[in-house]
Write a structure and sequence with these properties.
Length: 357
């Protein structure tokens, strides 16, 4: 029922959708990785580029050199692009500092972005993203630093979750167990990058540790999917990173749905492996490469990630009593947003009842 003072929005001849909820992004960093884009176009793999000093560590050096204001400006620019593409909420990871000072600076910048834009921003500490050059050959020493920085981030209330990249050449199961224990001591949730480049048992590890989510999962098998379902761990699938790296192995999304898992899809926006902020593009990949229906792709982009981020009672669907996060699109059938690949943006975006763009 309309109450005095309520704002009326004319949505005639429009499709109305909830604002997208992007539950895996890396939106604040220094510099870019355009040269690596050219290298991949010439056939170089992600692992080859990283071994030559590129990849995450390339962005780390540029991020450490950036001022706090430059990092904030970077985040604000990306926040505006998220909103233009219909995303009203993101989970935002650090992970490009890899030392205490820069990681805390990144988390502070992420906080400022949420305070100074219309985008809702939820922070995650990702110190265990890669091993910095100064700790080469001393992963355990670096993990000690990661845990100490987690203590600082928690004390300053700069993060809601902690994350770790479990993959050959990065971090292992014991590192993840140490991080999970410390995160739990601070009442922080655990997120995990697993099974991106091979099936290392990462999904089963995420289930063992009762992680909030297991992200990537390109190589997760049936046993891993079953373990996630039994433990109630949410899969977060990132098909744009598969596409942008020129790879072919997409997660077994259809199998996950058939196992009753409430899958989430996200952009994985970052300067290297997935430089896209477009959830409509990700939804298109869901349908064309992972054989999800448009309805399943929409659910995985709105209400499912809202619940993953602890906001399912407030956002993610168009219901009375929820926050007015919604988008208007100039189309008669909302499926056109996915059907016209990368061609459509909302005509208006509302976050918290306020017109943003």
């Amino acid at each position: 029922m309309i109450q005095p003072g309520d704002e009326i929005v004319d949505a005639s001849n429009c499709s109305v959708l909830p604002g997208f909820v992007d539950a895996h992004t890396h939106p604040v960093y220094g510099g870019d990785r355009l040269d690596e884009f050219s290298l991949r176009a010439s056939g170089a793999s992600y692992q080859e580029i990283a071994a030559a000093g590129g990849g995450i560590l390339s962005t780390v050096s540029k991020t450490r050199a950036a001022s706090e204001q430059q990092l904030i400006d970077c985040g604000i620019r990306h926040a505006e692009l998220f909103l233009r593409n219909g995303t009203t909420t993101i989970e935002a990871k650090s992970g490009y500092g890899l030392n205490p000072e820069t990681e805390i600076r990144l988390l502070g910048a992420i906080k400022r972005v949420g305070e100074s834009t219309g985008l809702r921003v939820l922070p995650t500490y990702l110190g265990a993203h890669a091993i910095p050059a100064e700790f080469a050959g001393n992963r355990q020493g670096y993990m000690d630093t990661v845990l100490a920085t987690l203590d600082t981030a928690a004390d300053q209330r700069l993060a809601l979750w902690s994350d770790i990249f479990v993959e050959s050449g990065y971090f292992d199961a014991e590192d993840a167990r140490r991080l999970a224990h410390r995160a739990k001591s601070h009442d922080l949730g655990l997120r995990m990058h697993v099974d991106q480049f091979g099936n290392s048992g990462g999904a089963r590890l995420a289930a063992e540790l009762a992680a909030a989510s297991a992200d990537h999962l390109e190589y997760t098998d049936i046993d891993g999917i079953s373990a996630l379902a039994k433990a109630g761990v949410t899969p977060v699938l990132l098909p744009a990173s598969v596409y942008c790296l020129g790879l072919q192995k997409y997660p077994l999304a259809r199998t996950m749905v058939d196992h009753g898992l409430p899958i989430v899809v996200a952009t994985d926006f970052n300067p290297g492996s997935s430089p896209t902020l477009s959830m409509p593009f990700v939804m298109s990949l869901c349908c064309t490469q992972m054989r999800l229906s448009p309805e399943e792709a929409l659910t995985a982009s709105t209400i499912n990630p809202a619940y993953l981020l602890g906001l399912g009672d407030k956002i993610g669907s168009l219901e009375a009593g929820k926050v007015a996060d919604f988008t208007l699109w100039q189309c008669n059938d909302w499926r056109e947003i996915i059907y016209h690949v990368g061609s459509t943006r909302p005509s208006q975006v509302f976050c918290g009842g306020k017109a943003i763009s």
